[in-house]
TrEMBL record:
It comes from Nostocoides vanveenii. InterPro entries: Glyco_hydro/deAcase_b/a-brl, NODB_dom. Pfam families: Polysacc_deac_1. Residues 1-115 form the NodB homology domain. SUPFAM superfamilies: Glycoside hydrolase/deacetylase (SSF88713). This is NodB homology domain-containing protein. It comes from the Bacteria.
Length: 264
């Protein structure tokens, strides 16, 4: 069972990725900051130019929206935590058309008592429970993801989780966006990149995986030489092939979280 999350700014996601996923009938979870589609808000150069109407046009049958915090900025004032977490959730839920928004996908931002960017990052549920910000996240959302290290970190490139009917509190994601497309392919083989290895491990273990991606790389932003459209398309074809062969189910994170059976 594999879930795909796409973080952050809507423009490259909406202009490039949406059609790639729709053509393959791949569901996905959009980790969206409520502020980033407001007129005049700019977190990064590629975060401008689209609107709530564009977000509303996302195909709701395939796309789940999750809260990624209001601003994607570090929050140091405890009084600002509520607007950043609960306020963002309320805005995402109320933006027409009203949507079910169940989940929290952590941004790379630090909050008072809850480090989601600066190592050591909050990972397990105890880290969330030990701060006001973390408790707000846990209390207000049906599920929350954690911040597990990326493959170049010591934990290694394969992050999977048991899917045996027990809940997995704040699971971390397997990142796909790495230099030279290493998350999406190895030597041109989409089965050999970190993502492909993770999915293969999930199948072998009877586990699930949650894959994470930033589309800013598709427009040359957010890091040097990460991946290109061909590498991404190849990996999506790989996932689609596994799905069509019955080897994996590709689901939204809310479905991944609520699954009661092992799904391969
Ligand atoms: Zn983000």
């Amino acid at each position: 069972m594999v879930a795909l999350t796409i973080d952050d700014y809507p423009r490259p996601t909406l202009e490039i990725l949406v059609s790639l996923l729709a053509a393959r009938r791949l569901p996905w979870t959009s980790a969206l900051n409520a502020d980033t589609v407001d007129d005049g808000y700019m977190y990064a150069p590629w975060s401008t130019g689209l609107s709530w109407a564009n977000v509303a046009a996302l195909p709701s049958a395939l796309v789940e929206m999750a809260n990624h915090g209001a601003s994607h900025r570090d929050i140091t004032d405890p009084a600002a935590v509520d607007a950043e977490i609960t306020g963002s959730l309320a805005r995402l839920r109320s933006a027409p058309p009203a949507r079910v928004v169940q989940g929290w996908v952590p941004p790379g931002s630090d909050y008072p008592g809850l480090a989601l960017k600066t190592p050591p990052q909050a990972r397990g549920i105890a880290d969330y429970q030990s701060s006001v910000a973390g408790r707000s996240i846990l209390n207000d959302h049906a599920w929350a993801l954690g911040q597990d290290p990326r493959p170049q970190d010591a934990v290694g490139p394969v992050i999977t989780w048991p899917r045996d009917g027990h809940p997995v509190p704040v699971p971390g994601r397997q990142w796909l966006d790495f230099p030279h497309g290493a998350g999406l392919q190895s030597g041109g083989d989409p089965a050999g990149g970190f993502g492909g290895l993770c999915v293969a491990a999930a199948i072998a273990r009877g586990h699930g995986a949650i894959l994470g991606l930033h589309t800013a790389h598709l427009v040359g932003q957010g890091g040097q030489d990460r991946y290109d459209l061909g590498q991404l398309s190849g990996f999506l074809d790989h996932l689609t092939g596994l799905r069509d062969a019955g080897r994996i189910a590709v689901v939204r994170v809310s479905d991944w979280m609520s699954a009661k059976v092992v799904a391969r």
